[in-house]
């Protein structure tokens, strides 16, 4: 009987220890998830701020040749064309997809002559700080998505992706969107006040059923995939097509449908 009692006590001790380890692991995972979500939100806010600063720099230093939207139609472009020099179209996906961010940074910093392009493209490293060049890179990377039409490839990816899952969309939203849109999607994230103050941009209230009830799912998907600038809206809304898969973006659409209490269309 004593032996049985001792065995029971040992088993109970092991069970208690196992439960303690399990609870510790769960707590650790929750803390890690929370830390990852906070870091993702901070990264999103940092990117949005860089795009905003980059836009100001672009309009000040680059738009004269490249045009406000990067279409190669700035005031000086016509003069260059008379000399058979075509200003690069920075909103051309075929062109820009061939450049990595590092290569783009090199072109801006060192100019066209040192990167096997036109000598008329000046080196900006002597005028702009490395941080400013980084901001310019972030903005220029968004220009390819600023053509108002939706590329056929974007629509094809939307059609091929499975139906979105609201719960999955919520997890993605917490990681990528709360910095601007807020934890409940009401446009009141920690970065919203700064956007309103500096850029006169108010993040969309994603719970606004009046706004979303007439929008198609494919339109919401395209805005997430291509960014606000593509549709002549806020460039601070980044294009997520290089960060998220089509399935993930459809899950974000499904989550927006759930919090706006609107039907899929």
Automatic annotation (TrEMBL):
The lineage of its organism: Bacteria, Candidatus Eiseniibacteriota. PROSITE patterns: CYTC, PROKAR_LIPOPROTEIN. Keywords: Electron transport, Heme, Iron, Metal-binding, Signal, Transport. This is C-type cytochrome. Coiled coil: none annotated. SUPFAM superfamilies: Cytochrome c. Pfam families: Cytochrom_C (PF00034), Cytochrome_CBB3 (PF13442). One of its GO terms (molecular function) is electron transfer activity. Residues 49-144, 164-260 form the Cytochrome c domain. It comes from Eiseniibacteriota bacterium. Residues 1-20 form the signal peptide.
């Amino acid at each position: 009987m004593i032996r049985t009692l001792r065995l029971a006590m040992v088993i109970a001790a092991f069970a208690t220890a196992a439960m303690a380890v399990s609870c510790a692991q769960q707590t650790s995972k929750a803390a890690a998830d929370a830390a990852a979500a906070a870091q993702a939100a901070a990264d999103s806010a940092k990117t949005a701020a860089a795009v905003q600063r980059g836009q100001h720099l672009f309009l000040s230093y680059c738009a004269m040749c490249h045009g406000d939207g990067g279409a190669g139609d700035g005031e000086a472009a016509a003069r260059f064309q008379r000399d058979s020099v075509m200003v690069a179209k920075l909103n051309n996906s075929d062109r820009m997809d061939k450049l990595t961010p590092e290569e783009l940074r090199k072109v801006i910093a060192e100019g066209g002559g040192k990167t096997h392009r036109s000598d008329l493209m000046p080196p900006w490293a002597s005028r702009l700080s490395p941080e400013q060049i980084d901001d310019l890179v972030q903005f220029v990377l968004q220009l390819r998505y600023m053509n108002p039409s939706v590329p056929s490839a974007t629509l094809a990816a939307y059609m091929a992706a499975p139906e979105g899952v609201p719960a999955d969309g919520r997890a993605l939203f917490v990681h990528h969107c709360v910095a601007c849109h807020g934890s409940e999607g009401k446009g009141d994230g920690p970065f919203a006040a700064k956007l309103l103050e500096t850029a006169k941009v108010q993040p969309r209230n994603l719970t606004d059923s009046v706004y979303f009830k007439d929008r198609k799912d494919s339109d919401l998907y395209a805005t997430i995939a291509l960014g606000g600038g593509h549709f002549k809206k806020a460039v601070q809304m980044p294009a997520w097509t290089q960060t998220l898969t089509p399935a993930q973006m459809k899950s974000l659409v499904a989550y927006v449908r759930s919090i706006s209490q609107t039907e899929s269309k």
